[in-house]
Amino acid sequence: MIVRLTHRPRKKRIVILGGGFGGVYAAIHLEKLLARDNAVEICLVSRDNFFLFTPMLHEIAASDLEITNIVNPLRKLLRRVEVLVGDVKQIDLSNKRVLISRGYRNDSQQVDYDHLVIALGSITNFHNVTAFSELALAMKSLPDAIRLRAHVLRHLEDANSESNSIDRQSLLTFVVAGGGFAGVETVAALNDFVREALPFYPNLCEEMLRVMLVHSGSVILPELGESLGRYTQKVLARRGVEVRFNTRVKSMTENSVFLVDGVAIPSRTLVWTAGTVPNPLILSLPCANERGRIRVNQFLQVPDWPDVWAVGDCAFVPDIRNPGKCHPPTAQHAMREGRVVAQNIAAALSGRPLKSFSFKTIGLLASIGRRTGVARVFGFNFSGFFAWWMWRTVYLSKLPGLDKKIRVAFDWTLDLLFPKDVCAVYDLDQSRDFEKDKIQLGAVEVFEACAQVERV
Q1: Is 308 found in the same domain as 164?
Q2: In a domain? residue 16
Q3: φ, ψ for residue 265 (rounded to 5)?
C-alpha cells in the first residue's frame, strides 16, 4: 500500500515594520484586500501595542483629552493581522529576515518574510547635543505628552511654595523650540493650560509666567505661508506667548536655556520640537537613501530589492508630478502611501500591474489655542474660529474607531463646561527614560495606553 503525502505549500508572509500611520494603514488595507486569501499571512511589528493618533497629541499634554482616547489597540484594529510587539534590531535584506527583541528580557526573535514594508518612521532630532537628550522634553509620543503635562504641574507646585524669586522665575518660564506645526500647537496648548491652572495656585499670578517660542526662521508655520504665519504670531503674542525669530536654542542646563545669539533664558523647561530624523536603522541597510530616508520608486518599491517596500517618514517618495522633488513626510501622505503599497503588494502576488503613487496635499491645519485655528485648504486660507472648527472636524473624522470618535467628542464637550484637571499622574522624580521608569500611574488604563503591560 502506497501512501502519498501531499505537501502543503508555505504561506506567503508579508511583514510590516512600524506601527505609525504608514505601517498601520498598510496593514488595514492588506487585511481588506487579502482577507479571503488563505495562502497569505500578514504580520505587523510595532514598538507599542497601540496606534497613536499624533495630530491630537498636544491635547493630551494640555489635559483637553483623556490619555486613552487617541490610541487604538492594534489587535482590536487589525483582527486578521499577527501583531508582534517589539523593537526591530536588524533587517537582513539578503536573507529576507528581520530580527526583533521582545519582552522585558529582550528575547530575540527572527521573522522571515516574502514581502517587507519598512515604515519605521522618525525620531526626535537633538542634533547630537547631549544636554538636549538628557534635559529637554520631546513631543513625539504618548509618554512625551504625559511627561510634559506632569512636568508643568510639578513646576507650578514648586513655584507656588518657592520664596526665591530667581528660582521661581526659572520654574515658571517655559520654552518651546521649533516654529513648525508641532511647536506652535504645543506652545499654544501649553500656554492655555498653564494660564487656566494658575487660579488654583494662590501664590502665583500671570505676571510671573513666561511662555516662549524659539524659531530659526522669520515666520512661524512656514508651511502655511507668511500671511497665516503672521496671523498666528499676533494671536500668540496677544495671549502672552513671546516669540523669538531668527535664532535657535544652543544649549541647556538644569536652570537655563541658551540661544545662539547669546541670550540666556532662566528656565527649567525646554520642549524640543525642532526637527526629526528617520529611524537610524535605515542607514544600516544596503540600499540607496536620501537625507537618511530610503529612496523608493514611484511604486514605493526599494530599487534592486523588488520584494521590499517603504512608506512614511522613513521613505523618500518621488513626486511624479514634480520631477526631482519628493512627497512631504506627513500623516495624510503616509496614510495614502499605506493604501497604495497594500494594493501593489496584492498586485505583485497575483501578477497584476503596479500602481504609481501620486497625491497632492489637500490642506494643512493647525490649532493655536482657545478655539482658534489656521488652515490652508485647496489653496484657500482660513483663520479664527472657523479654522479651529475645521481642524477638529477633519481630525475627528480621521480618528480610527467609532468609540474613540464619541469619546473625544464627549471630552471636547466637557472641556467647554468644566476647568482642566491639574493633577499629575506619575512621579516625575524617576528616571527620564520612560521605558525604564518605575512609574506609579494613577489608573490601570494608563498602563495599557502606554503599552507597558507587554514590557514590564
Answers
A1: no
A2: yes
A3: -110, 115
Both 436 and 323 in one domain: the answer is: no
Same domain (yes/no): 304, 161? no
Encode pLDDT of 267-314 as tens digits. Answer: 999 999 998 899 999 999 999 999 889 999 999 999 999 999 999 999
pLDDT digit string, tens, across residues 167-218: 999 999 999 999 999 999 999 999 999 999 999 999 999 999 999 999 999 9
Same-domain check for residues 242 and 195: yes
Torsion of CA 45, 46, 51, 57, to 10 degrees: -150
Both 415 and 312 in one domain: the answer is no
Same domain, 247 and 139: yes
pLDDT tens digit sequence for 6-47: 445 678 999 999 999 999 999 999 999 997 888 999 999 999
Q: Are residues 112 and 145 in the same domain?
A: no
The whole domain housing 197 covers 130-274+363-449
| Residue in 113, 74, 78 with CA at minimum distance from that of residue 93 | 113
Q: Specify the number of domains making up the chain.
A: 2
Same domain, 336 and 440: no
| Rounded CA separation 202/100 (Å) | 51
The string of pLDDT tens digits covering residues 305-352 is: 999 999 999 999 999 998 889 999 999 999 999 999 999 999 999 999
Distance, CA of 80 to CA of 98 (rounded, Å): 21
Q: Residue with C-alpha cell 540661544?
A: 259
Q: Which pLDDT tens digit goes with each residue over 370-399?
A: 899 999 999 999 999 999 999 999 999 999
